[in-house]
Structures are given as C-alpha cells and as structure tokens.
TrEMBL record, chain C:
<keyword id="KW-0964">Secreted</keyword>
<dbReference type="Pfam" id="PF00726">
    <property type="entry name" value="IL10"/>
</dbReference>
<dbReference type="GO" id="GO:0005615">
    <property type="term" value="C:extracellular space"/>
</dbReference>
<feature type="disulfide bond">
    <location>
        <begin position="59"/>
        <end position="111"/>
    </location>
</feature>
<dbReference type="InterPro" id="IPR020444">
    <property type="entry name" value="IL-24"/>
</dbReference>
<feature type="disulfide bond">
    <location>
        <begin position="60"/>
        <end position="113"/>
    </location>
</feature>
<dbReference type="InterPro" id="IPR009079">
    <property type="entry name" value="4_helix_cytokine-like_core"/>
</dbReference>
<comment type="similarity">
    <text>Belongs to the IL-10 family.</text>
</comment>
<keyword id="KW-0732">Signal</keyword>
<keyword id="KW-0202">Cytokine</keyword>
<keyword id="KW-1015">Disulfide bond</keyword>
<dbReference type="GO" id="GO:0005125">
    <property type="term" value="F:cytokine activity"/>
</dbReference>
<dbReference type="InterPro" id="IPR020443">
    <property type="entry name" value="IL-10/19/20/24/26"/>
</dbReference>
<comment type="function">
    <text>Immune regulatory cytokine.</text>
</comment>
<protein>
    <recommendedName>
        <fullName>Interleukin family protein</fullName>
    </recommendedName>
</protein>
<feature type="disulfide bond">
    <location>
        <begin position="12"/>
        <end position="105"/>
    </location>
</feature>
Length: 204, 213, 152
C-alpha cells in the first residue's frame, strides 16, 4: 500500500428490492483516473474460513464509485464489505463499511400493478421484479371486504387471471411482494377497482 | 487421446439425454472415422464399486444406447462409458459426467384436452408419465416424482388477441363467462420449483365457444 | 407465509428456501464433480442411501449434516476458479443460515438422535476420513444434490 493514496470514505449501502449497491466518495488525484476494487466477506468466511475476503464479481479496477454487489450478497447472513483505491501500482488502505450488511434489511416497495376487467374476468398485470419475487394479490367484491380472496402469483410473464366477476359489479385489488429468500413482504400497493361488464340485473 | 497408428481416437461428446426419465446414452463417432466403427457400453451406479456391461449395446455401430432400465432408480446417480473399436484398434473408455435422473431429465409439456359450452371452456391437463420398461408395467406420473408440480396455462382470445395466464396445481381448469362464438387457444407448461424444472409449452389447442342459443 | 417452503424433519418444522443453494450448486456441479475421480465411493450414500433413514431420525441427521458441511467441508474446497469460489461462498453462507434455523429445533428438543442416525453419521464421517481431506471435501461438495434431493 501507498500512504499517498487515501482510502475511500463515506462507504455505504443502498439496498432496494433485493438490489444492493455499495457506494463511496471518490478519491481525487489531480489529472489521474483512480480505480477501485471491492471485496466481500460472509459470516461463513468470518467464522469458519480465517476471516478471508472474496473479490466482488462485478467490481475489480472500476472507475465508478458505486458497485452492484447483488450477485455477491447471495445468502441471508451478515456480510462485511470493503473497497480500496488503486492508481497504477499504488494501492490505498482498505476502506471498510461500518458494521455489516444483511439483505434481510433491504427495503421492499409495493409492486406496480394494473388491474384489468375483460368482460366478466378480473385480471392483473404485475411488474417483473426479478426471480426472487412473488406477489400476494388480494381481491374482493366492493362492499364485501370480509370475503377477501388471496392469490400468489409467481410468474409475471403476462396477464394473470384472478377470478370471474358478477355482471356489473365492482371489484377491488391490491398486492404486495413476497421474497422467499428473506421471508419478508412489502407493504400493499394502492387499491385499484374495476367494473365487470353488463348490468347487475343480469344476475336476478 | 491415443496415438493414431495403434489406437483409435475417442468417441466424443458422451452424455445422457433424458426426457421424462427415459435415459439414453448418446455420443459422436471418433473424429475422422467413417463407417465400420463399433462400440461397447458399460455403466456404474455412483458410490458402488463395479462397472456393468450392457450386453444389448455390445458391438453396435449406432451411437446411442438406451440405459433407461439400468438407471430407473432416481434416488441413485450414475456414470456411463463408451469404447470404440475398428479393425483391431480401440479407443479409451470415455465417461459421462455424473448423471442425476431427478435433476438432469427434461420434462415434456402436459397433454391438453379442451371442451367448450356456449360460455365456457374446460381444460384437462395430464402430466407425462415416467418412462417404464413395458406397457404392462404400472404407470408412474411425473406428478408422483415431483410432488410440487404445477401447471402454467395460457388462454388466448383469438378475437381480442388478449392472453390470460393461470397458475394451477390441480389438473382441471374451467374458464366460465366467455364470449359465445369465439375461438380460444390454450397451451400449458409444467413448472417444478424444487428442483427447478420447466417443460416447454404444449402446442396450442384451439376451440370455439358455441354460438349464443 | 406466502411461499417459503416448510421442511418437515420428524417433529421439527423449519421454514427455509433451498432455491438459491440449488441454483448455486447447479452452476458449479460439473466443475466440482469433475474434480472427484473416485466413482466407487460415496460419502453420503455409502453403504446405505439417505433415503433409508427413518422419518423420526430426519431432523438429527440433517442437523449433523449441516454441521458437517459447515465445519468440515466448505473450507477445504478452495479452487483456482474465482467464479466457483464465489458460488461455494454463497452456498456455505446459505448453509450457515439453514443451520441456525434447524438449530432452533435442536434447542427445543425436537431433534432427537436415535441409534440409526448416530450410526449413519458415524458412517459418513468414516467415509470422509477414509480419503485425504481435499478429495473428501470436494467429493462431499459434489454430493450436495444427494442431500438436497433427500431433504426436499
């Protein structure tokens, strides 16, 4: 290491919807391009493998001051993270994230959904948030909140069918995400209501 | 690999190809060899001491050998190996990687049958059967092999071009309250989450709801 | 819960996900198994398959095996391939997470060890110690799907 090159500072984690990013302040050397390398250490490495560190899969000699560590944080345990600056042959000391990061703390946002009434059929279109996500969809006939139904949607490749509706009736839908790997759910989305085709007299 | 003049080049790309646990060993002929090459095959159960010859695949000139019977216990894992010989020359034994029938098989799409009334269509899905030695042998559905098996069903309204998607565990699905006199096309896929195995989608089965009485 | 898998190990019920371990193992299976030339011995399945273990002993055997992999196996599986090493780290840390969940059952006395599981685990250790440590560790890692197939 080279005392001239200071270690990166202000190291922090941004984690939303199971996408985790390590960020830090740039190390400025006039007229030079400083590069950075990131390493991670899971609880297993700390406790059972002599506190060994593993190079990040994405961030070796990068120029950005942000690293996507999602692939590296692949278990629900406490991870240590560190980054150092490199300029030619000289390397700074490691700057280490204060404390550990466990992906169980990721912030989960409610899913974006679009509710569709297609004739007498209630359908929902959900935003694809990646393989880690499932969706818990709640739907009910307006005014009959106590008879709320639940459907878990795992594949979001197209429009998911929820149920058939009574003619002319209003139905409401809300959804939350669920991440099996951390056994946590987001808060619910806004409720959306749609009306089935036809008029209510059809059912008399 | 062996020198050219006293030993034969090795068979290439030796691997299991498995569909619904019909486990067939395949390979390619040694490079540069035309017809006339013969082969013999042996297999072993991983963790058990011995290699076992497959008599029906001794001195064969084809480049496959059905080992379904020998590898039907999917709680075991297997290796297979092939040796080529021609005019007194012979190659090395060339092995497959370790074969796990449970995770390394491919699953066919389900059988789909559709019927309709004026306002609904009924879909019946049948999971493929595990390979069996003979028609008389009792059938085992892949549903029994993979208890978590689910069906993803796609229903396309040919008039509106809208496609709906159902994810179901049981094998029947009724879609009521449809438009009379309209064509709907159905296809289905099998999804197993552990181990992760997806079949392709079946070909589309189209049917029209009856015209309004 | 919406989708986490509930594993039943005798009286013990544990909610956990093996999806990522499966994915990690599938990504390195060919590489790891190719490093194990010994076809005639299995650490987990020799002489008897895990499938022969009685339901009442499932929790104890699983508890032993989680400890076996965490304490003995993963640390001796370093390779020259950084991709493989990262996947092994991912699997090892996931095992740590599962070991902790199953440990709760052990503490609540739902994970009693019968004679069969004790004998079976002794056999696994004997198989392991019958090889040099790197070969034994690499073979054990290559048999992870045997454990997962049996667990699921």
């Amino acid at each position: 290491e080279d005392a001239l090159l200071p270690a990166p500072q202000n190291i922090s984690i941004l984690s939303t919807n199971m996408k985790h990013f390590l960020t830090w302040s740039p190390v400025i050397v006039q007229g030079e391009t400083v590069r950075y390398s990131v390493e991670f250490q899971g609880e297993y490495e700390r406790v059972y493998a002599n506190e060994s560190w593993i190079p990040s899969s994405e961030c070796c000699l990068i120029t950005a001051t942000e690293c996507n560590i999602t692939e590296d944080i692949s278990a629900t345990v406490a991870y240590a993270l560190r980054v150092r600056a490199e300029l030619g042959a000289s390397r700074s000391q490691w700057g280490t994230l204060q404390g550990f990061f466990n992906r169980i703390t990721t912030s989960l946002t409610p899913p974006v959904l679009k509710v569709i009434a297609d004739g007498y059929h209630l359908l929902v279109e959900l935003e694809d948030m990646g393989p880690a996500f499932q969706f818990r969809v709640l739907y009910w006939k307006k005014g009959q909140e106590r008879r709320m139904q639940v459907k878990v949607v795992k594949e979001v490749s197209s429009v998911a069918h929820l149920d058939t509706m009574e003619a002319g009736a209003d139905y409401c839908v809300k959804a939350q995400t669920y991440v099996e790997a951390i056994n946590r759910s987001s808060s619910f989305s806004q409720t959306q209501c749609v009306r089935a085709q036809g008029d209510t007299s059809m059912w008399l | 690999s062996g020198e050219l003049y006293c030993s034969l080049l090795n068979p290439r790309n030796v691997r299991f190809e498995s569909i619904n646990m019909k486990n067939v060993l395949h390979w390619s002929a040694p490079e540069g060899t035309g017809n006339g090459v013969l082969y013999k095959v042996k297999y072993s159960v991983y963790g058990v001491g011995k290699w076992i010859r497959k008599p029906e695949c001794r001195n064969i000139n084809r480049t496959w050998c059905d080992l379904s019977s020998e590898t039907s216990d999917y709680e075991e894992q297997y290796y297979a190996s092939v040796k080529a010989f021609l005019n007194g020359m012979f190659s090395d034994w060339v092995e497959t990687s370790r074969f796990n029938p449970l995770t390394d098989t491919k699953i066919d799409p389900p059988l789909v049958s559709v019927s309709s009334t004026d306002k609904s269509i009924s879909i019946v899905l049948t999971a493929p059967e595990k390979w069996k030695r003979s028609p008389e042998e009792e059938s085992v559905s892949l549903l029994q092999v993979y208890p978590g098996l689910q069906y993803n069903v796609s229903v396309l309204n040919k008039k509106t071009k809208k496609r709906w998607f159902f994810s179901i565990s049981n094998h029947t699905l009724v879609v009521p309250w449809l438009e009379p006199g309209t064509a709907y096309c159905v296809s289905a896929q099998i999804h197993v989450s552990t181990p992760l195995l997806d079949s392709g989608f079946s070909k589309e089965h189209c049917i029209a709801t009856l015209k309004d009485k | 819960t919406a989708g986490n898998k509930i594993f039943h190990f005798g009286a013990c019920r544990v909610s956990m996900s093996t999806t990522e371990i499966r994915a990690g193992f599938t990504a390195i299976k060919a590489n790891i198994q190719a490093r194990d030339p010994i076809r005639t011995l299995s650490i987990l399945s020799y002489p008897h398959s895990l499938h022969k273990v009685q339901s009442s002993d499932r929790c104890c055997i699983t508890h032993h095996l989680f400890n076996f992999y965490v304490d003995k196996v993963f640390k001796h599986c370093k390779t020259e391939d950084s991709f493989v090493n990262r996947k092994i780290s991912s699997i090892a840390n996931s095992f740590l997470s599962m070991k902790r969940k199953l440990g709760q059952c052990h503490e609540q006395n739902q994970c009693t060890c019968g004679q069969e599981s004790t004998e079976k685990y002794k056999q696994i250790l004997a198989n392991y110690e019958g090889l040099n440590v790197t070969s034994a560790a690499m073979k054990s890692l290559g048999e992870l799907d045997i454990l997962l197939d049996w667990m699921e």
